[in-house]
Every structure is written in structure tokens, then in C-alpha cells.
Amino acid sequence: MTGPRDDGSWQYRAVNRLNPGLDWFSDALIELVEEGHPVVAGSADLQYSNGLVKFAERHPDRFVQFGISEQNMVSSAAGLATTGAMPFVATFASFLGLLCCEQIRMDVAYTKLPVRLIGHHTGISLGFYGTSHHATEDISTMRAIAGLTVVSPSDGPQLKAALKASAEWPEPIYFRTSRGRDPQIYAADVDFVFGRGIEHGRGEDVTVIACGSVVHPALEAAAALRAEGVSVGVVDMPTIKPLDEGLVREVAARSAIVLTVEEHNVLGGLGAAVAEVMAETPSRARLVRHGIRDEYSLIAPPTHLYAHYRLDAAGIAAVVREALS
Amino acid sequence: MPAPTPPPPPARSADRAFLEDRADFVRTEAIRLIEIAKVGHYSSVFSAAETFAVLYYAVMSLHPDDPRWPDRDRFLMGKGHAAVGLFPILADLGYLDREVLDGYTRLGNPLGDHPDMTKVPGIDFSSGSIGHALSNGLGMALGGRLSGRDFTVFVMLGDGEMQEGQVWEAALGAAHHRLGRLVAIVDRNGYQLDGAVDDIIGIEPLADKWRAFGWDVVEVDGHDVDELRTALTAAKESGGERSRPLCIIARTLKGKGVGYMETEPGWHLGYLTPADAERAVAEITEKKR
């Protein structure tokens, strides 16, 4: 027998290579190399999951396989950065945000080294792989680290634009990205500006502030709500730190309700960041935080989880309706 | 960006008496600085004093006028708590004004119990959380290879540090990536905070462990400056040909130079009153070699 007979059978490497959503990451790094930046990419035995295999094949001399040693990878990236390299190292967000937290604090942020950390498969996107693979605390841990920029792009083009813009960003960065399956929101050549939220319509009844993979369902929910006569705006807030505080104050002055949406614990994440701003700036808006409510997520296929936690379009729309009622 | 023209290197000497004198200078200056802070890691410095002196005065390629000179050799300290022994050397070589030493640990001074690369010229990497430094050095050695520079990365590790898992992640990785210009120096002084390393969590057979992880291993008397100089110079000069990283196990005495510190492990951390400090300095400077 040379292999499975049915077309529906699949294996990990081959199926990931067929996912064009994983190309954005490598394509950004390949372009940075072509532009003359001293990129070095590192992976901890997940190059097919994060798509770095494409970069590794194009630039084998600029790719470092660290194996299953995430802490070693982060600390080594910091050492690399001292020699003039621009390191991008990637692993599951659950590992960067928790397992490597102290290496990120001590070796990357405290030292102010231009290391780019890419935490992928965020939130509950790994479904039934379970709690060890769910990343619902990483925004909280990373934004608590002084000197670390935290960015959660909402689709592939925005991820690519943010990675490319990072070449000119002086601080270390934690990128939080999903699994390369997010529906595309932006055009392939979209711009990215650190610290700037992106408005998708304005609403007097409610403004939804979301980041990462839940921006797309938030936009779908807004469309459905508008059809019902609700005045709703959506802010895609990719930079969680430094937060676009001006835009938060603006929407809080404009809308009756500000609803934050994130696939993350409501403690310490985007909702908390927005709450900190709103608490210090009195406004007419009421804040509602929506996300994982300080619990370990159930296990299930991802779409089932997003539905269960009301992080899909229908769920977000329902949360808005409840908040308005 | 073109590499800056390196200024002339500092005065150096392979002379045994000179290096022994510099090692004792490390000890007496550490005593002086710890008197300012009123607490410090005396015996951790004393075991490493000869290694500091030999590296900085006889082995490493350095240009103190240009602390970030890209071709310089690097020195990292996994046992960052011994930095109080390194700061006097940095001042002696001209990285720092000597007056900076006098404000050791005081508000606004760059010098603390652990080294900070963002504050102290000549510090190649910050440390304080034990176990990271070999990985930091691994990254530097990769970066050296990538940029075509042939500097050597020396990483001093405590023997208690061998208990940290990340050290062995880095050991595996460095051997796999064939980083011949990465040199670990284990200060095998035998003691950690809670007692003898071998009583806390034993690490022997240490040389066999490093060999099993794919490293070359050399064992030296860490208080013999000639032996150290020979081993460290060979490590630097052979880095381009070696396909394996090198571990130098320096057999040392914790507290070396002050009798009671050599026998009482509690001196890992402590404080000497000015009178006791004076007596300790006298013992160090007056001892017969």
C-alpha cells in the first residue's frame, strides 16, 4: 500500500501547504528579506502549522529550527537581535504567552531588543486540542510587560502589513494571530499603522471594538443589526498596546454602548484595556465586555466553540441585542 | 552600515602575576562595592575572579572605547549575581568612569546586583533569571555565523544553574547547530544558596553530561590563571575549526581567598562590616601565592 485511497484522507504537512491563509506570514518575511532587512525566522517544530516552511525553503540560511524548546527559542532570538539580526520567532500563542512569559520579559522586553514574537492559533481556535493549546491569557500577560507592543491582526493582509511595518518599529512586538483560516477583510495591499484602530461604520446605539479573528464575525453581526435598524459601528483594534485611546474616547462619546469582543479571557485582555481608558474618562457609554468569562474553554470543534461562546456572528449580534434591551 | 574603526585594545598581559593581581582586584573591589550596598554575593564572585580576569585582560578581543564593536568577543553571565565582580574590571578597562562604581546600587546608578546591558557599557547581555544565558549566547553565535563575524561567545554558568531545564535545551540546540564559537564556562564551585549542589540536586557526572549533549569538554583548575588562559585562548583560537561547542568546567572554591568563606557556604550572600571588610581585604592581598 502506497498511501490512503480516498481523496478525503489527509496528512498534516500536505494539508497545511494547501492553506493559502498561511502564506501571509512567510510572504511578509520574504519581502522584508528582498528589501534588505536582516530577517531571521525561527520555529519550534511548528513550521507547517504557522507556514514558515515556505520561508525556510526560500531562505534556509535565514531559518533556524529550534525544535521543541520554546523558551530557548525566545532567549536565542534575543541573542540574535544583539548581532544586528531582525528575528521573527513563532509558536503557539499559548506557549509564548505563558510558557515563555519570563523569557519575553527578561530577554526581549527589558533589554529593548527588536524581537518579533508571533503567537499563532490564538484563543479557542485549536478547539478540541484542549486547554493546553487554548490561548486565552496571552493578551493579558503580554500587555502587562513593559516595553512590549501587542498586536492582534484580524486577517492575513493585515498580519502581513503589520509584520512589514514592524521593520520600522523600534520596540519588541508580540503578534497574536489565528490559524490562517480567517476570512479576508482587507485588500492584499492594506496599510498598517501601529496604535491605530480602524473604524468600520459609526453607530450611536453601539460600537463594537474587536480584535483578531472575531473582527470578521463582528462585522457580519453589525450588518445584520443594521438591517434591524440598530445604529452600530465596529472598530477593528489590532494594536492592543499601545491602545488607540483617542478612538476609544471618541466612540464612548458617540455610542450608548461600547461592546468589546475578543477570543480571550475578559480579564486582562482587550476589554480590560478599553475599560481602563473608559474608567478614566467619564462618558455616556456603558461598557460591556464579551469574551471568555474567566474559565477554561470546553473542548469541541472550533466552529462549535465559537457558537457556544457566542463569538460567531449570530452570537455577537445576540449579545448586542441583549445589551440594548 | 560600515563597521566602526576599532580603537586600540586595552593594555593586556598574559603574565601570571599580573592576572593573579587582577583577580584579587576583583575580590577586593567586590568587597568595597558590597560595603556600599550592605549586601552582596561575595563567594560567588570569589570563585569566578580568575576567570573574569583572564577573559578580560588576556583572552577576549575588546575595544572599551566602542563597547558595541560588532566583532568583539562576548561574555555573558548566567550567574548574573556575580556582576559585582565584573563591574570593577569594566571600570578598570575604561568602559565606565571609576566614580560610577562608588554609587553601586544607589538610586539612579546603572550598577545593580545583576548586569543590565541597557544601562552598563560593556555588558553584553542582561541577566538575573538563572538559565537563560546559554540560549542568549546560542543566538549570538548564530548571529555571528550569519553575519560572517568570527567572534567568540563565552557564557559563564553557575553549577547550580545546571539544574535549570533551559540550559539543556540550549546545550542540545548549540550542538545541533554546530556552534564551535560558543563556549560555556561552568563555575563548578560546588555550592548554591541552600547548600552543596550535589546535596540539593546532584549534577555529576557533569563532563559526561556535556559530552553526551554533543559538546567538547575541558576541565581546568579555575584558580590557576595559566591553566585558564591556555584553555580559554585555545577555545577562542580553535572556534573556527570546531564543529562542536565547548564546555570548560572550571573547578573552583566558593569564597576563594577568604578562609571562612571557603568553609561556610552561607557566604553566597552576606555583608561584612567595614572592619571585617578590611580584614578580608588584608587576607586577600597579603596571602602567599
Describe this structure as you would to a colleague:
- The complex is a heterodimer of chains A (325) and B (289).
- By secondary structure, chain A is α/β, with parallel strands linked by helices.
- Chain A folds into 2 domains: 12-176, 3-Layer(aba) Sandwich (Rossmann fold); 198-324, Rossmann fold.
- Chain A has helices at 12-17, 23-34, 52-58, 70-81, 93-99, 101-109, 138-143, 156-165, 215-227, 245-254, 270-280, 302-308, 313-324, and strands spanning 39-43, 63-65, 86-92, 116-120, 149-151, 173-176, 198-200, 206-210, 232-236, 239-241, 257-265, 286-292.
- In chain A, α11 (270-280) links the parallel β11 and β12.
- In chain A, α2 (23-34) runs parallel beside α8 (156-165).
- The longest helix of chain A is centred in the C-terminal third of the chain and has 13 residues, at 215-227.
- Chain A is globular and about 55 Å long.
- The N and C termini of chain A lie far apart (62 Å).
- Chain B has 289 residues and is an alpha/beta fold.
- Chain B has a single domain (17-286), classed as Rossmann fold, CATH 3.40.50.970.
- The longest helix of chain B is centred in the N-terminal third of the chain and has 22 residues, at 16-37.
- Chain B has 11 helices and 7 strands.
- Chain B has a 5-stranded parallel sheet with strand order 1-2-3-7-6, sandwiched between helices. In chain B, strands 4-5 form a two-stranded antiparallel ribbon.
- Helices cover 43% and strands 11% of the residues of chain B.
- The interface between A and B is medium-sized, with 31 and 30 residues.
